[in-house]
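Standup notes, protein team

Yesterday: finished cleaning the Raineyella antarctica set.
Today: Hydrogenase-4 component E structure.
Blockers: none.

Input for Hydrogenase-4 component E:
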Amino acid sequence: MSDHLYEQLLATTTGLLLLTAVLQVWGRSVTRAIRLLAIQGLALAGLVLVVGLHGGERQAPPVALLVLLVKAVAMPWAMARSARLIDQTKEAGSLANPAVELIGAAGLTLLAYAISGPLLGGQADPAAQAAPVGFSLVLLGFWQLLIRRSALTQLVAFLLIDNGIATIAFLTSGGLPLTIELGVSLDVLLVVLILGVLVVRMHEEQGHIDITELRELRD
């Protein structure tokens, strides 16, 4: 793989990651947020493959396939199933209007690029230079946690943070060993399945999944 092609593929995959993250923060549709999560998993798998192949790592294809299956297929499927069970396709409301959401997303993205430069120490490697995208995903995930009221979209935000952490890891270290990535991905998938069940139970017990109305614990 030539350096020019490597940089182009790197820019494409990281750009897709950042675009899907911003659209997740901006939208109100739960269905669209889950679809964007699947596209994000596909972009992350492509990023793993590009970085791994450029670095000459033999385990890049199986790690990329693992990321694809878990983050682009299994997790979105589990989220979509929970949404179907509670019949929620659109979030009832948000703690911020769309303009504030976009302004906050833009500000956090700029902040990510500002703080990641000193942390990375001005590395010349194109992958390291793209690491601010991972920091942006993490900050946008926390931003979504702050402004969303639905437990289901909060779960999407949690997965956005996880994707951001994985992006930083792959861009700064050239990828993780397959056994580590397998363990982490399966742990996150298990958490998503458990939280999906809890969201359904919450809807059955309370009639809604608005976390702002859960003021106190009851027997």
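Follow-up from PR in the comments: Residues 3-213 form one domain.
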